[in-house]
Amino acid sequence: MNQLVKPRIHHLGVQTADLNNCLAWYLEFFDAEQKWELDRFSQLTLSRLPGIRRLTEVAAGELRFHLFDRAGHTRQQPDEDGFLFQHVCIQVDSPQALQAARRRWAELYESGRFTFSRPDQPTEIVVDDDGVQSLYLFDVNGLEYEFAYIPDGHR
Predict the structure, then answer these.
(1) Quick check: is 109 in a domain?
(2) Which of 38, 70, 102 is the last residue of a domain?
(3) Which tens digits make up the pLDDT trace of 87-110?
(4) How far apart are CA 120 and CA 138, in angstroms?
(5) Has residue 56 been placed in a domain?
(6) 57 vs 64: CA distance, rounded Å
(7) Which of 120, 152, 151 has its CA nearest to residue 138?
(8) Is 105 strand, coil or helix?
């Protein structure tokens, strides 16, 4: 039997050049809670992430983010033509939650309290032929998230 019959995401790892900026944005945007922080790491972590200095977990409901910084970060976006996770989709419970996410992003962007690596505004909310509604936006690091409302009985 396949060991990955029902895989679940435990956390998303987000590398950033400015952990304080990133942490503050994730806490506010996702209405998240900081759970713990590390500044000492195993040899395995140090070999996989040279220069890691701090790592913190924030939780928004059951979704966790591991935010971390590394010395010598280039502050460059990945090559869009190469392999990368293009976006992560987060399912929401209602179309109103999409509107709220779009408003919250705009409020935080316009507050001037955060440094964003991309000036791109969130997309409009789009509806596909199956009634699935989606919104795309970037975090402070330029990582793309899709927020989707998927009506019962679809996909």
Answers:
(1) yes
(2) 70
(3) 999 999 999 999 999 999 999 999
(4) 7
(5) yes
(6) 7
(7) 120
(8) helix
Number of domains in the chain: 2
Asked whether residue 5 is assigned to any structural domain, the reply reads: no
Cβ distance 139 to 145 under 8 Å? yes
What's the CA gap between 14 and 55, in Å, rounded?
10
pLDDT digits (tens, 9 = 90+) for 113-133: 999 999 999 999 999 988 999
pLDDT tens across 17-54, in order? 999 999 999 999 999 999 999 999 999 999 999 999 99
Same-domain check for residues 103 and 130: yes
Same domain, 64 and 115: no
Q: At a CB cut-off of 8 Å and minimum separation 6, what does 39 contact? A: 53, 54, 55
75 is a domain residue: no
CA proximity to 141, closest of 111, 116, 108: 116
**CATH number, domain with residue 24:** 3.10.180.10
Instruction: Specify whether 108 is located in the same domain as 145.
Output: yes
Instruction: Return the higher-pLDDT residue of 79 and 94.
Output: 94
For residues 124 and 150, give the distance between their C-alpha atoms in angstroms, rounded to a whole number.
16
> Containing domain of residue 34, as a range?
11-70
Instruction: Give residue 61's region: left, alpha or beta (phi > 0; psi -120 to 50).
Output: left
Question: Please, are residues 90 and 139 in contact by the beta-carbon 8 Å criterion?
Answer: no
